[in-house]
Design goal:
Order of helices and strands: EEEEEEEEEE
Number of helices: 0
Largest sheet: 6 strands, mixed
Number of strands: 10
Structural class: mainly beta
Strand content: 35-45%
Helix content: under 10%
Shape: globular
Oligomer: single chain
Strand order of the largest sheet: 2-10-9-4-5-6
Radius of gyration: 13 Å
Length: 124
């Protein structure tokens, strides 16, 4: 399992971004067979869980800091998991990573397949 993140960038406070998490290269596995989690790491801080989505039933989970602003969802036709981020705040600035796990969790230990990450910067 190897994943690739994309979609980051520079956005003003209150703006929106959509991050994508897809299988890397020709690995050929189905993301729907795994729980997919989004995590972020700001400079000088530990990686923290942002959101995750379970396999199959698609149950979703969010950190309190992003609840009501971020939405995680799958597009199985594109074998991609997205993180829609609205009402962005400067404290959302971080490198965002996605990982795959056999079960959903906002802790990162069950996850594997981390990509290089995508930088999100929220600043005016």
């Amino acid at each position: 399992v190897q994943l690739e993140e994309s979609g980051g960038g520079l956005v003003q406070p209150g703006g929106s971004l959509r991050l994508s998490c897809a299988a890397s290269g020709s690995s050929g596995f189905s993301l729907d067979d795994y729980a997919i989690g989004w995590f972020r790491q700001a400079p000088g801080k530990e990686r923290e869980g942002v959101s995750c989505i379970s396999s199959g039933d698609g149950n979703t989970y969010y950190a309190n800091s992003v609840k009501g602003r971020f939405t995680i969802f799958r597009d199985n036709s594109k074998n991609t998991v997205y993180l829609q981020m609205n009402s962005l705040k400067p404290e959302d600035t971080a490198v965002y990573y996605c990982g795959a796990s056999l079960y959903p969790s906002l802790g990162d230990s069950p996850y594997d397949g981390w990509g290089q990450g995508t930088q999100v910067t929220v600043s005016s």
